[in-house]
Design goal:
Structural class: alpha/beta
Strand order of the largest sheet: 2-1-3-4
Number of domains: 3
Helix content: 55-70%
Number of helices: 16
Number of strands: 8
Distance between the termini: 99 Å
Amino acid sequence: MRRTPYLLTLILLLLFARELPLRAQSAAELTVFHSPLCSSCHAFLTQQLPALQAAYGDRLAVHLVDVSTADGLAQIEAAEASAGRFSNPLPVLLLGDSLLADEDLSRLTTQLQELLAAQLGPAAVASPVPSLTAGEPSPTPSETAAWCDSKCQTDPPIHVAYISKPYCAVCDRTQLVLEVVAQDYPQMVIHRFDQAKDAGLLEAMARTLGLPEERRLIAPSLYVGDEALVGEGEVTATALRAILQRYASTGAPEFWTELDTEAASQGILARFRGLSVAAVAVAGLIDGVNPCAFATILFFVSYLAVGGRSRRDMLLVGGAFTLGVLITYFAVGLGAMRLLAWVNAARGVGLVLYGLMALACLVLALLSLRDYALARQGNLSEMALNLPDKWRAMVHRRIRAGRGASVGAALATGVFVSLVELACTGQVYLPTISYVMGVQSMRRSALGYLALYNLAFVLPLVGVLLAAAWGVSTRRFQRLFTQHAASTKLAMAALFGLLAILLATRLATL
């Protein structure tokens, strides 16, 4: 009888030991929110997910939720609300309490693999990410879509203004919300407006609804009657249903059909015009302290100091170099303005050029953000928006050659260096000129804006020159430059983003 408790204890220990590996191998639950009309969803379900299921086997329990149904849409919105992230691009993955979403499908899969490895341990078999191929194409929505059947003959129509923009993953989610909600409200008539092309009308609509300036011209947005859902955080099926229910018996008119778009367009221009002088000056100043320009400034000043020149000589030679820079940039700006004046008269060419400029600014904004991240890590040499090494060496050779030369040689050196550096500094200069020439009210004062930009551009050079002449060491400037390189890149990213928006707005008026 005394052995009985020991035997029971031994049996329990053995059973518990058998349970341990089972618990370690417990399944993780992965919910995949998808839509049949989503090409990225198709690629994930047919290429990425099977590889993961093969790798983890029974340890990975997968649940598929079709968000093109009312129940599925309610589920994804509840999951997003719980995570505090709204209107994510599909597919959206939910692993435990972690919500994953990314427009880059490879990056999304990598994030999922890392979470699975942390939760379940190594995969039973290797699970390489398959190379992605295009999924099934998504249908292109019509400019004005109306989901309406025979019920519309009895119920008053509810007209909904849908503000979108091209290549907008969040807008694709809004389109899905509209399609699902329309199943319950067939009298809903959707009118689609483009954020840029219809800017004047959208401004008038926002004014009529009493929206503050910061809530205007935002995609995605929905306007119904005298109510508005603005931005990805507000445009949900639940919010839209609540508005539609209030208009179910009375309907909602097309309140935008008789609005004064001219006054609204002037309002947009007035907002931009108020920022014009400051924007041009700030653009020139940021361009003047961007790393590729500032590095050349430091190199030039250091050679003046090493040459043992007197303060008077440093100011004369440095002033001549600065004047060469100013004259060259102003001349290049005049040439660009003459070209853009012709472009504005030729509508087809203008559409292409302003479109390319806006796209280039967008790309440069993204590259500047990448450079910002590199600068934060101290990797200044790996930044993308820098003067090429061969060109930088050419500039340095020319500065060395003119170190002991006359004021005239310094002026010529400034011209030469400016022309070479246009490959880097022109990234800001030319889009800014395009913006100035694209706004009629600014075009009349184009020379003044051009002079303002260039004076702001050489201001850092003048400041460094004066400080060096009065004994401030180049090393101190170098430390200052290195410490603020990341901030400068972040400012450039914001500037490029602003220029992209302004140039895109100009496209809408051509």
